[in-house]
Amino acid sequence: MRSFEVTILGSGAALPTANRNPTAQFVKCKNRYILIDCGEGTQVQLRKFKCKLQQIDHILISHLHGDHFFGLVGLLSTMNLLGRSQSVNIYGPEALHKIISNQLEVGGARLEFEINFHPLLGNETKLLFEDKCIEIHTFPLKHRIETNGFLIKEKKMPPSLLGEVFKEDKVPLAAIPFFKRFENFTDDNGKIHEFENYIAASIAPKSYAYCSDTSFLPSIAESCKGATVMYHEATFTEIHKDKAKKTNHSTAIDAAKIGVLCNVKTLFLGHFSARYNDTIIHLEEAKTVFKNVFAVEDGDVIQI
Ligand SMILES: [Zn+2]
Questions:
Q1: What is the mean predicted confidence (pLDDT) over 234-241?
Q2: Other CB atoms closer than 10 Å to residue 108's CB: what's the count?
Q3: Cα–ligand 1 centroid distance for 23 (angstroms)
Q4: Measured in angstroms, how far is the CA atom of residue 152 from the centroid of ligand 1?
């Protein structure tokens, strides 16, 4: 069973609207649960879209503009009230660690679980976490303050045995190590069992690239080339491209160009300015550059 999906908890930019919360995404990858960014109200969105907040093991914060982290202390506080004892990993700019402790301390609150804080500098490309199933990487973006992008990847799994067919054909157990090395097996009676009949084709690992607030930045391709799915901010349309330049944000066309440079399969746009009532123009403009593009809404679930 494959399971790699992203729930959009917030698709708006700095100003929340009735339909769009500030940025947050809940990622499920091979039974690992990751929260990316945590705008105000994220814990309510987690509830609304039925994402289990106590399952979150890793919280990735791209940068310290409020619409990307103002919901964090509230979320940690709720995890505590619900009796969490398991530690949580937080990756974000160094100052965030202090902000969390200060916010908790002034009210005399104490968390009953550990926070393993991993500072990010905003200028590095590196592996943040890996286990036998997944990897989490960071890469730099270009915004008004240090900002990190993230890449979540499945690891290539070893080939798996087709148990049912194997049993049905009464293949000797001694054949298994041969099949796993993609070799045929000859039994005691001289019968040849071909590995191809009993080994499932290894599925290519998938990946998800998250490009938070950034100006147009071609170097993203150094980290995200070939990503299966990319999310890229597209705060503005072309009519406001001066505003995008001034605030170090992207237009839908900028995002689409990054999708092309990275050769991703599917591109999702988000972080829409509250000045737009819909995303029709964003999509029209982006499609002139990259065809397979969609605009996210709060509550969308993307299958990777
Ligand atoms: Zn920002």
A1: 97
A2: 6
A3: 10
A4: 21
